[in-house]
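User: Just a sanity check before I run the rest of the batch. Below are the structure tokens for the first item. I only need the designed sequence back.
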């Protein structure tokens, strides 16, 4: 477990160092603990692994002033576990479900148990993203998503992908994108 935590902390720090973000921004995370443990997604989830990953990410988000949004699996339509305060702040529609290991996944279950006031929402527009095990978080990122390369390529055995967002470029040949 300590190796997974160390990989995740280093990866998070590299993502942050390469991103322009503001306090109050959202980090969306999708995580297959099956993939982290070297198995096929959705086959061997681990609540202990999920809890370690959730607690590590929650602590890092708290340090940086970020909100954490934890994506459920496809059986809950990739809904997100977030704090109720974020749902109220962003006027997000709360949906009725409680994730568990077989519908929502271990990571979302750990998040639901770990947040102070957890709720589920169907969608969010996050400014940062971490996809652990190819869980497909792209639908929950603001436009325009940009990949971020870090030295960490895997968490455990799971491939990891990072994203940040930037404003859309508009205009044409006369447009300027910086002062």
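Assistant: Here's the designed sequence for the first item:
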């Amino acid at each position: 477990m300590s190796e997974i935590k160390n990989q995740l902390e280093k990866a998070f720090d590299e993502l942050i160092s390469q991103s322009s973000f503001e306090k109050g921004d959202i980090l969306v995370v999708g995580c297959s603990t099956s993939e982290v443990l070297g198995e096929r997604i959705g086959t061997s989830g681990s609540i202990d692994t999920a809890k370690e990953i959730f607690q590590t990410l929650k602590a890092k988000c708290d340090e940086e002033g970020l909100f954490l949004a934890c994506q459920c699996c496809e059986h809950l339509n990739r809904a997100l576990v977030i704090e109720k305060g974020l749902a109220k702040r962003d006027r997000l529609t709360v949906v009725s479900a409680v994730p568990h290991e077989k519908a929502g996944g271990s990571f979302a279950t750990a998040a639901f148990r770990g947040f102070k006031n957890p709720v589920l929402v169907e969608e969010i527009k996050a400014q940062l993203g971490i996809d652990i095990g190819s869980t497909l978080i792209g639908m929950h990122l603001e436009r325009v998503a940009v990949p971020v390369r870090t030295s960490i390529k895997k968490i455990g055995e799971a491939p990891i992908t990072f994203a940040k967002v930037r404003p859309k470029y508009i205009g044409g040949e006369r447009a300027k994108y910086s002062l």
